[in-house]
Amino acid sequence: MRNIRRVFRIVLFVVFGLVLHYALPQHDVVRVVNTYQERQDLNDWTRVFWARPDDQSAELINRDVQFIQTVKRKTWLLGFIPRDATEVMVYRNEDTGWSWPFYFKFDTANLQTEADDLVSTSETPKWAVMTHYGWRNEYLSAFPNAIAIRPVTGPDVTIIPWFNIGFFVVLILAFLFLRAVWQQFRERTLDPLADRAGDQMDHVSADLAERRSRWSRWMDSWRSKK
Question: What pTM, to 2 d.p., does this model score?
């Protein structure tokens, strides 16, 4: 039973971590190569990787989606350590509207214009920081969704994910607070109830034992007469 609980906690922790990794904002140092628009089919289960900014999009089986092609600076340790190498990365540019994840993005056209203005070549590069969420998977045709883009002086810029740091600090504080509340509730309410229930069980057990003893003595008295 203990192993089952342990496996369940590990699975729950992994799922929760994957959801956070998908939904929390990430920052990439990129050079915009091109922008384009393409018709995408949304008629299978991979629809979960695409935004649903309004009720109408839930009924459509395909729609036009804007994309931003970039050359991305490779990193180690989830983006904290830059590498002297680059790779191709394509972002989709969709409004999130009021749906999950809650970025409340409504400026797709503005972001596409900003990306167009940052298009450059390897000879005269223009570097920028692309804020996005989501994953890139070639087999599932999944693309991270661009949230914002801002120009920077070069590829060696240091990015500090203040939002993610604040989010995890608040998450840890909330966990500690709820844990303290639960401990107090258990000590003040559940433990006394368990103690009273244990005492009642002890009294019932003692009463049964006494009755059993009386019955045994009565039976012994009859046996002695015989």
Answer: 0.78
